[in-house]
Amino acid sequence: AAREGYVAILMPKPEDWLKSKDSYLNLEEYKKLRG
């Protein structure tokens, strides 16, 4: 829930939110790979 609020604050527009979501997912994948 906190993460969703964080994204909502940073990304006012749906297009930006989608871009941020993709970047966030990529970051999570990167962290998993780096482990």
UniProtKB/TrEMBL annotation:
Know the name of this protein? Uncharacterized protein
Q: Which organism is it from?
A: Nymphaea colorata
Organism lineage string: Eukaryota, Viridiplantae, Streptophyta, Embryophyta, Tracheophyta
